[in-house]
Amino acid sequence: MIVEEGLGYGPAKRRAVKQLALPGRTELPGNDEVESAVREYIALFCAETQPVELTALRALALVWMERLAQFRPYLSGAIWHGTATRLSDIHIQLFCDDPKSAEITLIEHNVAYEPHTVTGFTGASVEALSLRSVCQPLNETVGVHLMVYDHDDLRGALRADASGRVPRGDLAAVRRLLPGVQHGTWLVGV
């Protein structure tokens, strides 16, 4: 479901419980276990296509991160961790001095978006600005979700997880993943 349909870990786990007719309180595997299974699935069934798709999605994420560089963007999720396929959405976390400034920037550049509230990495509610962007190499329209955090939240955002991995990457880190990729502007790929 995660690889073939682009579901997130949480929704995939909930659907699996329903499909298997398990009790609602069934203990589910942790995200690390799910990610390990996703990596195995990709290695077996998507080894030829997934690396190209991942590179295209990272390049599009880089375009949006550069457009929003003033808000200290960090890439997270499957695209950052390397498990994304063409069905994966881009998740960028912005750390703003003024939470409304990112939204104002999108308005100023005539970018259509949908605001909503999601649970952030701290467990608190944060504003998300969701938009659609064309990923030309994949000939797909991709969801881009901008989670808007307060600048002070950045301190806790960079702690490594239990396995020592950094949970998100800034512009420089994403650029290192994409040597030779051209940089975007507001005029390309909106």
Total beta-strand segments: 6
Helix and strand sequence = HHHHEHEHEEEHEH
CATH architecture label name of the largest domain:
2-Layer Sandwich
Rg over CA atoms, rounded to whole Å, is 17 Å
How much is the average pLDDT? 90
* Shape verdict: globular
CATH topology of the largest domain: Beta Polymerase, domain 2
Q: What's the arrangement of strands in the largest beta sheet? A: 3-4-5-2-1-6
Largest sheet geometry: 6 strands, mixed
Oligomer: single chain
Question: Helix coverage percent of residues?
Answer: 25-40%
Tell me the number of helical segments per DSSP (H or I, 4 or more residues long). Answer: 8
Q: Please identify the top-level CATH class of the largest domain.
A: Alpha Beta
Total separate domains:
2
Distance between the termini: 28 Å
Backbone structural class: alpha+beta
- Beta-strand percentage range: 15-25%
| Low-confidence segments | 186-190
Keywords:
Beta Polymerase, domain 2; 21% strand; 2 domains; 38% helix; 8 helices; 190 residues; disordered C terminus; alpha+beta; single chain; globular; 6-stranded mixed β-sheet
Summarize the structure.
The chain is of the alpha+beta class and 190 residues long.
Polypeptide structure, described:
- This protein has 190 residues and is an alpha+beta fold.
- The protein has two domains: 2-45, no CATH class; 52-177, Beta Polymerase, domain 2 (2-Layer Sandwich), CATH 3.30.460.
- Helices cover 38% and strands 21% of the residues.
- It has a six-stranded mixed beta sheet.
- A hairpin with a 4-residue loop joins β4 and β5.
- 27% of the residues are buried.
- Residues 186-190 have low confidence and may be disordered.
